[in-house]
Amino acid sequence: MDAYILDAVRTPRARAKPGKGALSGLHPQELLAQTLQQLPKRTQVDVSDVDDVLIGCVSQLEEQGANIARQAVLVAGWPITVPALSLNRFCGSGLQALSLAAMGVASGAQRLVVAGGVEQMSRLGLGADGGGTDGNNLRLRERLFQVPQGISADLIATLEGFTREELDAFGLRSQQFAVRAQAEGRFNKSLFPVKNPDTGEVLLAADDSPRADTSLQKLGALAASFTQTGAQPAGPNGETLDALALRAFPRAREVRHLHTAGTSSGITDGAGAILVASGEYVKAHGLKPRARVRAVSAVGSDPVLMLTGPAPASLKALKAAGLTPRDVDLWEINEAFAAVVLQTARALEIDLERVNVNGGAIALGHPLGATGSMLVGSALDELERRGGSLAVVTLCTSGGQAVAAVLERV
Ligand SMILES: CC(C)(COP(=O)(O)OP(=O)(O)OC[C@H]1O[C@@H](n2cnc3c(N)ncnc32)[C@H](O)[C@@H]1OP(=O)(O)O)[C@@H](O)C(=O)NCCC(=O)NCCS
User: Fold this and answer.
1) Which residues line ligand 1 (CB under 6 A)?
2) What are 321-364's pLDDT values in tens digits?
3) Rounded to the nearest whole angstrom, what is the distance from the C-alpha of residue 219 to the centroid of ligand 1?
4) By the 8 A CB rule, do 402 and 312 touch?
5) What region holds the Thiolase N-terminal domain (predicted)?
6) How confident is residue 259, by pLDDT bands cut at 50, 70 and 90?
7) Helices H / strands E in the chain, number of each
8) d(C-alpha 218, C-alpha 390), whole Å
9) What are the φ and ψ backbone dihedral angles of 391, each rounded to 5 degrees?
10) CA distance 71 to 68
């Protein structure tokens, strides 16, 4: 694709509980506006050239409603001529924004596009839009019962035969890698400190979720997070969510509840933004891009298992680029749950050595609509650090979908 990434920035990810967390006092438009403002500062592009601003956000209501992308452009003080679109492909939204931006500039329809994402989960938490897993359409539900993600993750772990110990070991790895990355400043290039817009005081300068004191022993002592959810009666005849999951996958025989707070992605606030340009724009302005978007993809996968799309999405994008998993130097597979990464790596037959080498959402958190755009910056920073060439970023999403992008350092 004739699509280039000029730069990628992100906020730190802040631990979020309803109404609590280092960034919880900030309006989501303000968080996104600060993120957008970083791009012209860092790249010296003229923002009046921006053809569109595409922003992923899952809970688009209340403060994140009213097309948050457009409101943030206005908050940022960008010219009123810069349009903006908010989009939702659940947890894949931030990467979907990059896909659309790359398609836009590669097609020749656009020259300069901002892609990004935002989610303030402390203010609008999981499921805030009230749509549940299926928009509460009982006719669809009768035909296809989509269970909550934690049940899907435990079902995948059961079907794949992963043990609690294997998941915990992955959770520990995520923490250790994230802590090492912070100590070595590996996130510094993308990160910028978020400030109180009234006082200028720094609210947060670094991700505050990683737990340096995590151990296998501590992880092993955590209670499974989705046992009670699985036991909830939800079907028309009082079937539990576990029973409904098993109706779709009887060969599992049971849903083993294995994921805990230590092996699931954390609830956080954050935003990310990426500046994408056409080859023609790069040339005309003598710019030095950081990477080229080689290919992008989206796939649908089983909606009950829900989280197994990253392998086919990655293969689809790699095939479009004429590549195979073996060609990839670095993988960012969103750590929605430990089993997602382990299942994806197994399906792709790739070694974990090149996967999420600086930790992931288990340690750092997962501000839903923002994470995809944040992972792009993390992948580019790490490719540059280690002198690698190709990275794949991929995320599973609710509803049984996934998105992927193949990036090449230039
Ligand atoms: C799994 C989940 C329910 C856990 O929620 P929670 O119980 O509120 O989790 P917390 O992260 O606050 O952790 C609770 C406690 O577990 C312990 N804990 C968590 N992670 C730990 C770790 N790595 N090591 C040791 N203890 C840990 C701590 O005691 C912690 O309490 P503290 O923060 O006061 O120290 C929630 O994180 C979740 O729903 N994640 C998935 C989100 C999701 O579905 N996203 C969309 C799809 S990808």
Assistant:
1) 91, 126, 149, 171, 175, 211, 214, 218-219, 222, 225, 261-262, 264-267, 336, 366, 368
2) 999 999 999 999 999 999 999 999 999 999 999 999 999 999 99
3) 11
4) yes
5) 4-235
6) very high
7) 14, 12
8) 36
9) -130, 145
10) 5
